[in-house]
């Protein structure tokens, strides 16, 4: 509003408000002084000051001081044949005297800071979590540990164990950092607040490796979105079994899944590139080859692409966990209702650049698989 006031003399109100995105009605409303609200009139049915003092004295009497207002109300009716006021009015009188509060001790939860992590290249921020795999009978589980690079979505390490503890987590993180050549002070490891993640021995291992750790807020599932989404992809695979007959069966299935996920799965958030293409820097070569195919298709039939020539998608340059909102300065914020939004209608004859959905094929693996096995990662699993 200060900028509008300074510019009104030579630019006018309407052009200045339009340039700042401020409604003129808002400007004029802010300039008008606020009228003081008239005092609320006292009801004719309200208690007089002397009656209110009598009610307060009765409630604070030695015989009634430890009773609830409802009990005092009933006791006066039964024992003294007296009616002072309703129970709700008793509470109003007590509230006006500052004598109403929660009688139980209330637990005050600490205010946890929202994690805000940014990755602009592989091996800057890893996210890891543990999920259960159903065993052969009810109440039996195997535990799958997965470490994911959030920039490339590449699974850098994994392990299947018969229990969830910090010892397995320590070995997995230490071996995965050594396998990928992570230098001290270059990696941030994000995790939730499970028992292995909060273990003192695990925190000491991260400190020895020079890895910075961050935690999700309690009961906030979307603070660790990449690991949760990867687990959903894993458990929604058509060949994912309902139960595993034993630990070797779980290891065998995971040794087939993770190479497919890293080397063959076209990730929509990565511009339909595989995690391995982004993680190992092959994305520019793959995108250039795609663009040549699309340019040839456009040259052959330009009439089929009404809006614009097709372009190959690109992976994001920045990947965030809880990206902070970009706040506009107060004098540039738009106030008032937003214009109505309508869904865009597809133009007839417009062809999608993504083409039809296709399932993963049997392409050869480009690199060796990730992760570790259990109880000791084999050479095949660590290659």
TL;DR of this structure?
With 383 residues, the chain is of the alpha/beta class. It has helices at residues 2-11, 13-20, 24-31, 49-59, 69-80, 87-96, 166-179, 195-198, 200-209, 225-235, 247-263, 275-279, 283-300, 379-382, and strands at 117-119, 125-134, 141-149, 155-161, 188-191, 212-215, 319-321. It contains 14 helices and 7 strands.
Task: Report the sheet with the most strands, covering strand number, pairing sense and barrel closure.
Answer: 5 strands, mixed
The run of helices and strands is HHHHHHEEEEHEHHEHHHHEH
End-to-end CA span: 63 Å
Please give the CATH class of the domain at 117-277 and 367-382. Alpha Beta
Q: Give average pLDDT, whole number.
A: 84
For this structure, what is the CATH homologous superfamily of the domain at 117-277 and 367-382?
A: Ribonuclease H-like superfamily/Ribonuclease H
Shape: flat
Describe the protein's architecture and organization.
With 383 residues, the chain is α/β, with parallel strands linked by helices. Among the domains are: 2-31, no CATH class; 49-96, no CATH class; 117-277 and 367-382, 2-Layer Sandwich (Nucleotidyltransferase, domain 5). The chain has 14 helices and seven strands. It has helices spanning 2-11, 13-20, 24-31, 49-59, 69-80, 87-96, 166-179, 195-198, 200-209, 225-235, 247-263, 275-279, 283-300, 379-382; strands spanning 117-119, 125-134, 141-149, 155-161, 188-191, 212-215, 319-321. The strands form two sheets. It has a five-stranded mixed β-sheet with strand order 4-3-2-5-6, with helices on both faces. Helix 1 crosses helix 2 and helix 7 packs parallel to helix 9. It starts with a helix and ends with a helix. Mean pLDDT is 84; it is low at 333-383.
């Amino acid at each position: 509003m200060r900028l509008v006031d300074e510019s009104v003399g030579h630019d006018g109100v309407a052009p200045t408000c339009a340039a700042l995105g401020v409604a003129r009605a808002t400007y004029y409303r802010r300039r008008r002084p606020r009228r003081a609200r008239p005092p609320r009139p006292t009801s004719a049915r309200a208690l007089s000051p002397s009656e209110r003092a009598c009610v307060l004295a009765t409630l604070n009497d030695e015989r009634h001081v430890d009773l609830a207002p409802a009990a005092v109300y009933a006791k006066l009716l039964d024992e003294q044949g007296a009616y002072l006021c309703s129970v709700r009015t008793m509470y109003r009188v007590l509230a006006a005297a500052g004598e109403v509060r929660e009688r139980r001790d209330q637990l005050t939860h600490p205010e946890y800071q929202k994690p805000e992590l940014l990755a602009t290249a592989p091996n800057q921020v890893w996210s890891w979590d543990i999920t259960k795999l159903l065993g052969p009978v009810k109440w039996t589980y195997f535990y799958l540990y997965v470490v994911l690079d959030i920039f490339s979505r590449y699974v850098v390490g994994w392990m299947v164990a018969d229990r969830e503890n910090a010892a397995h987590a320590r070995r997995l993180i230490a071996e995965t950092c050594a396998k990928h050549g992570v230098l001290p002070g270059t990696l941030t490891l994000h995790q939730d607040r499970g028992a292995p993640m909060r273990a003192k021995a695990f925190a000491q291992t991260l400190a020895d490796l020079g890895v910075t750790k961050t935690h999700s807020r309690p009961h906030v599932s979307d603070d660790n979105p990449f690991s949760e989404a990867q687990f959903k992809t894993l458990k929604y695979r058509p060949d994912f079994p309902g139960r595993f007959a034993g630990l070797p069966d779980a290891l065998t299935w995971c040794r087939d899944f993770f190479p497919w996920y890293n080397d063959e799965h076209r990730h929509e958030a990565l511009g339909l590139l595989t995690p391995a293409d982004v993680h190992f820097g092959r994305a520019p070569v793959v995108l250039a080859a795609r663009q040549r195919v699309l340019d040839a298709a456009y040259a052959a039939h330009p009439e089929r692409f009404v809006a614009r020539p097709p372009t190959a998608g690109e992976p994001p340059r920045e990947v965030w966990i809880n990206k902070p909102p970009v706040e506009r300065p107060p004098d540039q914020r738009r106030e008032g209702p937003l214009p109505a939004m309508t869904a865009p209608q597809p133009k007839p004859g417009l062809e999608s650049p993504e083409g039809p959905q296709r399932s993963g094929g049997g392409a050869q693996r480009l690199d060796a698989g990730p992760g570790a096995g259990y109880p000791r990662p084999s050479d095949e699993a660590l290659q």
